[in-house]
């Protein structure tokens, strides 16, 4: 409804206005008019005026949306801006992301970025890192003299490795030494529970075969084993044991009765892994012999260790004592996600740099380390142009116990050829 449609009301208002104007004129002229004739009309006029104004307000409210409708429109247009899937280039991030980032947001972002991280020159597991280190060892200290062997003396001796006092079993041949000194064999034992390890136990017959053949030998206890200082950290998730071995090698070179240019290395099981890593990191080792060695690449260690006999799908290694596998995958991703890292820590990737020939021994019935590890390494060594020998022992176990004498004889002969009787270097 509009005011122009209220003709009577308008006229009445005009009349009232006129009365007031006339009354004003009379007041100016000094005469007062009687308004009693208009008094009854005043309530009606005000009622009609109120109705007219209410109708005008209704007309305006129908044409203008209420405030709540406007707010609803604002909410609808603002909502699509919030999702991160379609952010505007200049849009300000949500306050929770920029002002008060929560720890959970940070931790969830890190694992997704880590598997695609850059190559691994700073990983202490990498071969390149190992090559950059300096292994100076120390003077050997005789801690205890033991009962002698057949033709050699036996001692418990110690040396320093990264400031730790490491013990081991030292043997020195009797008799007149060669002009250049006795050749050396560093002896790397396999896994033994560190709290059960004793310097003078295990591997006695093995070490005796080399000691009686005219070699200085040293079997390092590794850190955390027996009386050695430090913590036993395992032979695969870090390089502590290899560091201990390379430091004892440097210590043995200081012996006045030793020939620093004729050094061989023998390793069994985990000690085989230590031997292979040492031979691609150091040029001082003239030849290596590995028995039942854990000599697979790291990707194969993840997927092909603990193979179930006759199974078509390899069984992954158990998690108990091999927590390092999960830790490395969490930090660097799987071999498929980060092949550069897994290649950088595998000695198998560096076989062209091997310091000397290798002889391999493995029993086909080994239930601790897959026989296929040695078969694969033999093939890889051939492809890398390195001299290798592989002796397999059908039905024999992890320690080659059924063929121990023949395996030892072959090992001594190999060292005689490539270490003791090797032509002078240079």
Entry summary:
With 426 residues, the protein is an alpha/beta fold. Helix content is 38%, strand content 15%.
Question: Could you walk me through the main structural features you see in this protein, from its secondary elements to its overall organization?
Answer:
The protein is of the alpha/beta class. The protein folds into two domains: 3-74; 127-420, Alpha/Beta hydrolase fold, catalytic domain (Rossmann fold), CATH 3.40.50.1820. It contains 14 helices and nine strands. It has a nine-stranded mixed β-sheet with strand order 1-2-3-5-4-6-7-8-9, with helices on both faces. α13 links the parallel β8 (358-363) and β9 (388-393). It is globular, with a radius of gyration of 46 Å. The model is unreliable at 1-6, 8-45, 48-121 and 310-320 (pLDDT under 50).
Radius of gyration: 46 Å
The CATH topology of the largest domain:
Rossmann fold
Q: Which segments are poorly predicted (pLDDT under 50) over 5 or more consecutive residues? A: 1-6, 8-45, 48-121, 310-320
Strand content: 15-25%
CATH architecture of the largest domain: 3-Layer(aba) Sandwich
Structural class of the secondary structure composition?
Answer: alpha/beta
What is the string of helix and strand elements? HHHHHHEEEEHEHEHEHHHEHEH
Largest sheet data = 9 strands, mixed
Overall mean confidence score, pLDDT:
77
Number of strands: 9
Distance N terminus to C terminus? 116 Å
The CATH superfamily of the largest domain is identified as Alpha/Beta hydrolase fold, catalytic domain
Total helical elements = 14
Strand order of the biggest β-sheet: 1-2-3-5-4-6-7-8-9
| Count of discrete domains | 2
> Share of helix among residues?
25-40%
Q: Regarding CATH, which class of the largest domain?
A: Alpha Beta
* Gross morphology: globular
